[in-house]
Amino acid sequence: MSDNTLAWQPPPRPEWLVRFNAEGRHTDLRSLVPLRADELIATACRTTGLSDFGDDRWREPFEILLKALEDEAELHYFGRLMTRNDLLIWLQALLGVQAAFTAHPEIAEERIDRPVVIAGLSRSGTSILFELLSQDHRFGSPRHWEMMFPYPPPERATYDSDPRIERCQHLITQWNRVTPTYATMHEMDARLPNECIIAQACTFVSEYIPFLFQVPGYMAWLGTRADWEYPYQFYKKLLQLWQWRNPRQHWLLKAPSHLNFLPILFKVFPDAQVLLTHRDPLQAQASVTNLAGTFYWMRSDKPLNVAAFEDLLSPDRVAERLERLIDWLEGGVIPRDQCANSRYADLIDDPLAALRKVYRQIGLAPDAEVEARMASYLEAKPQGKFGAHQYEVGEGEAVRQKRERFLRYQAYFDVPNERAA
After folding, report:
1. What is the DSSP letter of 112?
2. Region at 196 (left for phi over 0; alpha for psi -120 to 50; beta for the rest)
3. Cα–Cα dist 115/139, whole Å
């Protein structure tokens, strides 16, 4: 891409939001909606009545993110309010988790038994695989509300009636009210499971954060200096906390970006089973652009810029990550016998047959009741909800040149080409 601005065009804003943001243009937004480290920390402590954040590994990324938000993100009035609320929720989560472990050190003895973790390119079938496997009673997944508000520890008796559900529901559906087109792209519900990176955001080391804001300074720090073991260690603590009073047999977890950190994931969760999803990289990449632009547009009028998103969108960078996965498998850096594979093409063509293949790879089998639930789930989804499988019928020279970067990956995992949407 030679132009710094992608072809993506922002949707029109709701009239109420246009008027709201207009009111903020003649105010001192930095004073009106402060994003200063000391003030945010003091507010989080005052709100919770807690003061112990645990170790300090969150502080450097927190401060780097705040600087990038002020210098680079160009947040509009309502976007600044949304961002301040996010930051306070993450700080309060850090305080709450530490308070739970301090009051009940036995939580650290909770065993995370053979979690199943889904990883792969964004838009490569991670969601459909996650949603179908969630129909198996042997698996439990953290729901969005407990990711957002992990403290106090969720209780089995009140798990479906916890008042935090309603608060979370309002906040996450606010995205649809701010940018109505988002509702057509991604289903949001407080009771649905969600991606691990959302829970990891409270460490301020998470690939979720660069999806929310155009912050190249923070993104550069994330790619060169971040301690990625920290968010995985913290996530293990979250899983221990969530299952302490609401046990799960095996955790079912998902985030496409786990693909980038598999050696760390296996270090923290040595008995994990990882399900790798595979799709034509060019098609998967094209789907991400629209999602990223929509995320940024929720909080800023700044045009979507390739430089701020290059690490995710560049074919060379994507190919490097996919070839690194092959090298990890071939070199024994990650355990091959704990990695299974799922092709997007198979999931779209015959989901239940594809699921049986996945189960065989991880040494389990879906019983008749589980398969019936999966079939019912698929029938209840609108046609095309998970996409349509289309093979390519011809490509231009530019596309062929890009595709050459993915030849090794597609041959290694037998990933078919798709026709451009």
Report:
1. -
2. alpha
3. 9
Sign of CA dihedral 219, 24, 168, 176: negative
How crowded is residue 375: how many other Cβ atoms within 10 Å of its Cβ?
14
Cα angle vertex 219, ends 174, 63, to 5°? 80
DSSP state at residue 75: B
Residues contacting 256, CB < 8 A, separation 6+: 119, 120, 121, 122, 124, 126, 195, 277
**C-beta atoms surrounding 215 within 10 Å:** 23
The CA distances from residue 210 to 201, 223, 277, in Å, are 10, 11, 22
Rounded Cα distance between 11 and 300, Å, is 13
Strands 250-254 and 339-343: unpaired
What tens digit of pLDDT does each residue of 138-184 get?
Answer: 999 999 999 999 999 999 999 999 999 999 999 999 999 999 988 87
pLDDT for 183: 81
| Position 391 pLDDT exceeds 80 | no
Question: Which residues, in sequence order, are CB contacts of 300 under 8 Å at separation 6+?
Answer: 73, 74, 75, 76, 79, 213, 214
- Under 8 Å between Cβ of 239 and 112: yes
Residue in 280, 221, 245, 222 with CA at minimum distance from that of residue 411: 280
The total of other beta-carbon atoms located within 10 Å of residue 145's CB is 25
Q: Give the pairing type, strands 273-278 and 250-254.
A: unpaired
Token pair recorded at residue 314: 């560049």
How long a stretch of residues is the chain? 421
Beta-bridge mates of residue 116: 252, 273
Cα Rg, the chain, nearest whole Å = 21
